Amino acid sequence: MAKPKKVVLAYSGGLDTSIILRWLQVEKGCEVVTFTADIGQGEELEPARKKAELMGIKQIYIDDLKEEFVRDFVFPMFRANALYEGVYLLGTSIARPLIAKRLIEIANETGADAIAHGATGKGNDQVRFELTAYALKPDIKVIAPWREWTLNSRASLIDYAEKHQIPIPKDKRGEAPYSTDANLLHISYEGKVLEDPWQEPHDDMFKLTVSPEKAPDQAEYVEIEFAKGDAIAVNGVKLSPARLLAKLNELGGKHGVGRLDLVENRYVGMKSRGVYETPGGTLLHVAHRAIESITLDREAMHLKDELMPRYAKMIYTGYWFAPEREMLQAAIDQTQEWVNGVVRLKLFKGSATVAGRKSPNSLYRMDYVTFEEDSVYNQFDAEGFIKLNALRLRLGKMAHEKK
Fold it and tell me: Catalytic one among 102, 125, 230, 325?
């Protein structure tokens, strides 16, 4: 395989990716293009530009992808009510295909023949980045330094940075208490002090949510409006996808909603303990299921629920751009045509419970479900329905009794 000449690096501006940048220049002899994605991680990104300039980078991309992230990735996933292993709202997983897609677009724009990322050889992100890259540009070269270099400790990384004149912030000289990943949907915390699944995380670790114990003593109600399965307004105010999710983060975080402590099964084979904050996503998930409960046909809803774990696994394992995910997405999106209406949630001390739901397309009919007298439902019809459904059970029992 020919040696790569020009590489697009997913660059955060932090110490690790700055070391990777220099390593690509020195060890690989590559011209480097940096790409920094703003997907709502809440950090100032201009320092990444300045640091890249100091390291001699001529082509620097810093892109605001927040609206695209929520509109084209988060919202389609939430139409499916996707939960990995029953609880995880896939906050890290869903960001990776967007970042990798943009890496490939920049490679095409700049004539680069390779991309590079800072994911380790133990995690899922390497799989997600690279499956997306190969799906969109089959001949792209991928450089994953953590699978190649021998800088396998914090001390060796610091030594390399000092040797190559890479500025080292004071707070980076010691071991980090855990690793984090943040975007507009969530923050994740892994590693170090969290590696023992018996140990409870310290409350001062959390950034998006107050602890339920410190949340307001008064419940708050919030109304979320949906159109064709996507949230479009909060408390009657229409908002863009990214601004809507940010608003739900604020409301959920204020009431301690959306914390999760999970031991999950990584795609690479090991179990991993992660702690997550997904306040707005939790509100969105609860509300979307509630509006579907009155607008979706029973069998369509049940089939969606059967397909959901497989769909969620596709996202977790990096198959966003695979034909099977796209096929399922088309089916899911077809069910959302009449998923319109408003859901009222009650937020209190870490919980988000449904307090009301209404829709112009509701399948819920008071005249059918009332326990009072009605003129639309003949209760006698239930007898034949039950007997027909019991027929195979009766025949089976009679056949077995003859033996």
Answer: 125
Told to judge if 16 belongs to the known catalytic residues of this protein, a careful annotator would answer: yes
Does residue 391 lie within any of the structural domains?
yes
Among the listed residues 179, 293, 351, 362, the single catalytic one is: 179
Which has more pLDDT, 167 or 328?
328
Catalytic annotation on 362? no
Q: Annotated catalytic residue: which of 22, 96, 102, 325? A: 96
254 in the same domain as 120: no
Which residues span the domain enclosing 214? 180-358
Catalytic residue among 12, 16, 272, 357: 16
Residues 198 and 225 in one domain: yes
Which tokens is 136 given? 């969109």
Residue 79 among the catalytic residues: no
Residue 175 pLDDT more than 90? no
27 and 116 belong to one structural domain: yes
Number of structural domains (the chain) is 3
What is the per-residue pLDDT for 171?
A: 62
Q: Are residues 110 and 126 in the same domain?
A: yes
CATH of the domain at 295: 3.90.1260.10
Q: What pLDDT does 44 receive?
A: 86
Whether 192 and 129 map to the same domain: the answer is: no
> What is the band of 365 on the pLDDT scale with cuts at 50, 70, 90?
confident
337 with 392, same domain: the answer is: no
Active site residue 125: yes
| 75 part of a folded domain | no
221, 328: one domain: yes
